[in-house]
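Fig. S4 source data, part A: sequence.
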Amino acid sequence: MTFDRELLQITLLSLQISGLATGISLLIGMPLGTLLALGKFPGRSILLSLVNTGMGLPPVVVGLFVAMMLWRSGPLGGLNLIYTPAAIVIAQVVIALPVVTGLTAAALQSLNPRLRLQLLGLGASQFQVVLALWREARLPLLAALMAGFGSVISEVGASMMVGGNIRYQTRVLTTAIVLETGKGNFDLAIGLGLLLLTITFLVNWALTWIQQRGARR
């Protein structure tokens, strides 16, 4: 209730990391999902299967893979990213990217295929066609955004493995809950859990309001 300085820092860091990871996932996942939905090329079905599999990828497996890559003896060890907020962002992008990509592809594939042909027949460029299709599928695309954010703001395994849960550096709400539970501070752990649920609800409430407002238009 007092929302002290450390709790404020943990909360802001959680929002910064998860918000950045979700944004990066959108920048990569929406074009990739669009390519998988509209493109015709060899191996497309295999890529879609891999994306759909990745939607259920366990966060601890992601954490293990990213930790191996960023470890000092790993391929990217020279970047010195292990146990930093950047490492958590990378892990969360790997978690959210398949979710955003898969839901984007599904949203565009659910549209009437004649719409694309009509747009091309009217002389629209490929870029204009994609923008028009995104606009038409904006409601399920917002659902993809909510799903992507929800998949990272609530995960703990990958953040713990690549971030180390270091105080004032990489400790986020989920890892703080695990720490306080391990110490037997159940009242504080419950408080942190309620705070996490409140933040998740407020973000999704805002996105849902935008989604439903667009549905009424």
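Fig. S4 source data, part B ends here. The mean pLDDT is 89.
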